[in-house]
Amino acid sequence: MTSTPIILIGPMAAGKSTIGGELAKIIQIPQVPMDRVRWYYYYKHGFSLEKELSIESFTDVLTYWKPFEVNAVQNIVKEFPNSIIDFGAGHSYFTDKDQFNLVSEALSNIPNIFLLLPCKNKTKALEICNDRLKKRKEKDLEENEITANRNFINHQSNYKLSKHIIYTEGKTPLESAKEIQSLLS
Questions:
Q1: Do 84 and 23 touch, CB atoms closer than 8 A?
Q2: Beta pairing partners, 33
Q3: 16: which of 80, 86, 91, 118 fits an S-S bond (Cβ 3.0–4.6 Å)?
Q4: Mean pLDDT of all residues in 38-58
């Protein structure tokens, strides 16, 4: 198979973990969800829960996380080469040019980076992802969650980092996983 990871990126509730699980079954390599392992990398590199809890605004918390997200991306791709890694939505979204460049460099030799979106229409994609997220959380979304997902869909970082875009609307997770499998380098 591949000696580099297969990476799935995209907004919240795009289906990264679900499709990653189906793909892992098909090609029989481990799935490593970034949202499950990120805290290990964050704490290892100086993250402080006390500091995070002292930050009042959600936007400022996201800003505090960014250097840790960069580091997590740099490390996970080295430590899990023959794996499917589904990134958390923020791990491929960087507005800071230097942070984006560090992540881009860490991913530059990885041919299998797939951006998952429900559809090409960004407004509709946001509606679909937010509806899925609302159902998963079983409550209405907060405005900062809607704004974050809009940013994840609209910002160019996901599009620049990905090598392929997979549109999932009207497909089962298994069908999307098989489409990814057909495109693997």
A1: yes
A2: 86
A3: 86
A4: 95
Q: Which residues, at least 6 apart from 154, have a Cβ–Cβ distance to it below 8 Å?
A: 122
Report which of 29, 12, 31 is spatially closest to residue 21, judged by C-alpha positions: 31
DSSP β-bridge partners for residue 116: 166
Q: What is the token pair recorded at 26?
A: 């098909």
DSSP codes, the chain? --SS-EEEE-STTSSHHHHHHHHHHHHT--EEEHHHHHHHHHHHTT--HHHHHH--SHHHHHHHHHHHHHHHHHHHHHH-TTSEEE--GGGG---SHHHHHHHHHHHTT---EEEEES-S-HHHHHHHHHHHHHHHHTSPPPHHHHHHHHHHHHSHHHHHH-SEEEE-TTS-HHHHHHHHHHH--
Q: Measured between alpha carbons, how far is 102 from 105 in angstroms, rounded to an integer?
A: 5
CB atoms within 10 A of CB 120: 10
* Domains of the chain, first to last: 6-183 (3.40.50.300)
Which residue's structure tokens are 């996380």?
65
Tell me the pLDDT band of 185, cut-offs 50, 70 and 90: confident
Q: 48 forms bridges with which residues in the sheet?
A: none
- Average per-residue pLDDT in the chain? 95
pLDDT digits (tens, 9 = 90+) for 111-166: 999 999 999 999 999 999 999 999 998 999 888 889 989 999 999 999 999 999 99
